[in-house]
Amino acid sequence: MTLWEAVAVLVAGVGAGMINVIVGSGTLITFPVLLAVGIPPVTANVSNSFGLVPGSASGVIGYRRELVGQGRRLLRLGIATMLGGLIGAVLLTKLPKGAFDAIVPALILLALVLVVIQPRVAKFVAARRRSDGDPDGGWVLIAGIFLTGIYGGYFGAAQGVLMLALMGMLLQEDLQRINAVKNALAMIVNGVAALFFLFTATVNWTAAGLIAVGSLAGGLLGAKVGRRLSPLVLRGVIVVVGLVAVTKLLLS
Description:
This protein has helices at residues 3-22, 27-36, 41-62, 64-67, 71-94, 97-128, 138-154, 159-170, 175-200, 205-225, 231-251. The protein is mainly alpha-helical.
């Protein structure tokens, strides 16, 4: 990796850390950059999972006030997302490499669609939120978070958007507190996947380290000032980078 390639990966890590804290979809920034510097898709995905763990942790720290009083909820949903993330990581290492190469363009396009329609999802969620029912979302939410964890352990782009939509519709809770839970669950998924990959997959430690440093800084920045940034600009950047990644994967 050249100096400028290293700088590009580091900057992508900062952007991903910030975006993940705000809404979730930072993988759509880092993954294409790792491909662009010549890292194979599966190795890029594994290295990205490692690198984003510190960013997720910094997001949790930044939103720690919003997590107060949500211990029971975090325990229930954390177990579900941990199991799902582990299954997703197992699938990534056990399925043929060609399967990942074939599936990822479709997953990126799905993630891009989620990012684009996120404002509509937020409006729909706000309209559907209920003032009655299970304050923890019940088994429907646990099942949904489990499935989202599988997706996150396998690839993870825009898993935060899915989590926000699920919890927003099923929980009686302020959206900032829901976002705090989302950051904690994303940290669990990335962490359990990274731990599994440590013993079962090839990691590009240079790339993982650069993303880790960048995402740590980006997570802290996102928690403090990210809400002031234009969501339209953030979504625009994500869509452009994601489309470049899809084009590169399809052409190769």
